[in-house]
Amino acid sequence: MDALGPKLLTRLLDEHGAALVLYAQQWCDTPEDVVQEAFLRLMRQSEPPENVVGCLYRVVRTGPITASRAAGRRRRREAAVAHRREPWFKPSEADRLDAAQVTRALAELPVEHREIVVARLWGGLPFAEIARLTGTSTSTAHRHYEAALAALRERLGVTCPKTNRTET
Amino acid sequence: MSQDESNRDLTGRRPDEELPPDLKAMEDELASLRPRDDRLDRERLAFLAGQASMIGRATGRRAAAARWAWPGACAAMTAVAAALFVALFVRPEPRVVERVRIVKAPVPAQVDEAPRPDAAPWVAEAPPDLWRPDSPSRVKSRDRASRRPGLPAQADWSRFRSRGEYLETLDRMLARGMDPWDELGAQSGGGDQRPNVSPSDVPPPYREWLKTMLDDQARVDRPNGRTTGPNRRGANS
User: Fold this and answer.
1) What is the pLDDT of residue A48?
2) Which of A79, B119, B138, B179 is buried deepest, with most CB atoms within 10 A?
3) pLDDT digits (tens, 9 = 90+) for B126-176
4) What is chain A's alpha carbon radius of gyration, rounded to the nearest angstrom?
5) Above 60 in pLDDT, residue A166?
6) Which chain B residue is nearest to residue A23, measuring alpha carbons?
């Protein structure tokens, strides 16, 4: 592994593996296979790409979508994935939010919004990269992100700290 | 520095990327959740990644040849097998050539005029003038045959060049009859194997003629108290 050594692979897996699986889960039922194939395609390249993380997200995004390119099939698949009750997050006692509840709330979002939220929140991608991924402008990506956060806040019933201070 | 980069603050965000406080709090709450990391088989992925990196490293013409060697050989063998399979059904039927080959019986060697001491007894002890056209035996036989109606006046012994030819002709006549001679003579080229007796010269009842000839021969031999071979043969035939 000259181009991408084992250390880099381990680091990528540690930092982005789980987020990539979550990102791939927005489109397919077998996100582990998609992420594994993305890593393998990356390792087969003789020269590493400039933006390794962005390349991984692109491959993860295009893999399932290419497999189910037909719009109808894609919609049915997304609906099926969205209604799966398998938790997407690790349960934690310290979290104020319930992982299963967040999963349900995310699943009810449109896939365009879900994709941006996952890539931004857990993938840590900048909006410019998200815009490249989704094929939109940065402003559009940001606007969708805000709308998705507002919808999640409403569905999860999280109160704004400022509003709390105002009330108290 | 581009316009896009100049608009960014120290945190790398542009001003329009700033979130309202309520959404910022929501973002922080959501970011505190950790995606499940137990779904990827890291060991398997590391192993496959090592394999993939070796494939990626093996580039160039040699690597391509090594990669396509076995598939190419397999494809070539498959093509050969398919071609042989097709040829098995398409090939023409084997041509059967039937040839009729007539094998002639071995011809005895030319016999001298004088009988050899080790010849058959009836040949060796036959009167020496039997084979001459003007021998008394032949004249006698000719006279007897001329008195029979429908038979030739005389058996033309002069047509036989030698005793060997006579014996050969006699054997053939006894074995085959007279009819196949034309065909046999034509196939053998009409050469010296054919006696100078043509079927047209033979009177129609050739068996009668043959019997007469053999009877005459027997009568000639009878004073010696001996039964000759040709007579016995003629009786058998």
Assistant:
1) 76
2) B138
3) 555 555 666 666 667 666 656 555 555 555 666 777 778 888 888 877 877
4) 17
5) no
6) B35
For residue B230, what pLDDT is reported?
A: 47
Q: Do A142 and B16 touch (CB under 8 A)?
A: yes
Name beta bridge partners: B35: A89
| Structural domain range at position A69 | 6-167
For the cut 50, the answer to whether the pLDDT of residue B2 exceeds it is no
Q: Which residues of A touch B40 (CB under 8 A)?
A: 13, 17-18, 21, 32, 35-36
Amino acid at A166: T
Q: Is the dihedral of CA B185, B190, B193, B196 positive or negative?
A: positive
How would you class A153 by CB atoms within 10 Å of its CB: exposed for 0-12, middle for 13-18, buried for 19 or more?
A: buried
Q: How many domains does chain A have?
A: 1
Alpha-carbon gap, residue A86 to A91, rounded angstroms: 12
Residue B112, pLDDT above cutoff 80:
no
A1 inside domain: no
B25 has a chain A CB within 8 A of its CB: yes
pLDDT score for A116: 92
Contacts of range A114-117, beta carbons closer than 8 Å, 24 or more positions apart: A114/A26, A114/A148, A115/A23, A115/A26, A115/A61, A116/A141, A116/A144, A116/A145, A116/A148, A117/A145, A117/A148, A117/A149, A117/A152, A117/B30
The CA distance from A16 to A117, in Å, is: 15
What's the predicted TM-score (pTM) here? 0.46
**ipTM of the complex as predicted:** 0.73
Burial class (CB in 10 A: 0-12, 13-18, 19+), B91: exposed
Assigned token pair, A31: 């996100």
Q: What percent of chain B has pLDDT over 70?
A: 49
Continuous H helices in A2-107:
6-12, 18-24, 31-44, 52-67, 71-82, 99-107
Instruction: Please report the residues numbered 31 through 70 in chain B whose beta carbons come closer than 8 angstroms to any beta carbon of chain A.
Output: 31-37, 39-42, 44-46, 48-50, 52-53, 55-57, 59
Residue A62 lies in a domain: yes
